[in-house]
């Protein structure tokens, strides 16, 4: 019996671009929040929930970001494998998770807390540190790191 297998070829490409934040250092959660406001579409922050990840090098400089998912009014589906795939593709050693709450209340839900722990644990296996998880609204934010929850 002769069985042939055909699979798609995967090609990885890394093209370094200029830093998104000048020198790219994110010194505080307020720096991260301000940057996130610049990458979340203003017209959807209060409309639909989105989940984005910032990728950092080992010096804490931003080297990229990606949108993991866009959802509905109060939820979005997050695949941890997609988060880690992005980190591996750009050689990130640290990540900052983020999502918005269209309700205007930046406090984390039980699901937010659970997801943060799952991502932190999965990332640790790959030696990638979850530095923070920022929940943002148009005029405030919640930092898991600032609150001692990372």
Please describe what this structure looks like.
By secondary structure, this protein is α+β, with helices and mostly antiparallel strands. The protein has a single domain, classed as 3-Layer(aba) Sandwich (Cytidine Deaminase, domain 2). Helices cover 25% and strands 23% of the residues. The protein has three helices and five strands, in the order H-E-E-H-E-H-E-E. A five-stranded mixed beta sheet has the order 2-1-3-4-5, with helices on both faces. The longest helix is centred in the C-terminal third of the chain and has 16 residues, at 110-125.
So, the CATH homologous superfamily? Cytidine Deaminase, domain 2
Query: Which strand order spans the largest sheet, edge to edge or round the barrel?
Result: 2-1-3-4-5
> Which shape, going by the Cα principal axes?
globular
Question: What characterizes the major β-sheet?
Answer: 5 strands, mixed
Helix content: 10-25%
Average predicted confidence as pLDDT:
90
Q: Radius of gyration, Cα only, in angstroms? A: 17 Å
Quaternary status: single chain
Strand content of the residues, in percent?
Answer: 15-25%
CATH second-level architecture: 3-Layer(aba) Sandwich
Please outline the helices and strands.
Blueprint: H1 29-39, E1 50-56, E2 62-70, H2 80-89, E3 94-100, H3 110-125, E4 129-136, E5 141-143
Parallel strand pairs: 3-4
Antiparallel strand pairs: 1-2, 1-3, 4-5
Question: What is the structure about, briefly put?
Answer:
The protein is of the alpha+beta class and 150 residues long. The chain has 3 helices and 5 strands. It has one domain (29-143): Cytidine Deaminase, domain 2, CATH 3.40.140.10.
């Amino acid at each position: 019996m002769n069985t042939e297998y055909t699979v798609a070829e995967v090609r990885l490409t890394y093209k370094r671009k200029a830093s998104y934040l000048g020198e790219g250092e994110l010194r505080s959660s307020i720096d991260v929040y301000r940057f996130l406001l610049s990458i979340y579409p203003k017209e959807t922050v209060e409309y639909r929930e989105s989940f984005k990840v910032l990728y950092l090098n080992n010096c804490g400089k931003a080297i990229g970001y990606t949108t993991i998912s866009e959802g509905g009014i109060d939820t979005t589906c997050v695949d941890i494998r997609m988060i880690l795939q992005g980190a591996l593709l750009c050689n990130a050693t640290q990540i900052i998770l983020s999502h918005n709450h269209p309700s205007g209340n930046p406090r984390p839900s039980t699901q937010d807390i659970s997801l943060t722990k799952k991502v932190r644990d999965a990332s640790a296996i790959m030696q990638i540190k979850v530095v923070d998880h920022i929940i943002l609204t148009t005029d405030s934010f919640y930092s898991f790191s600032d609150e001692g929850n990372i």
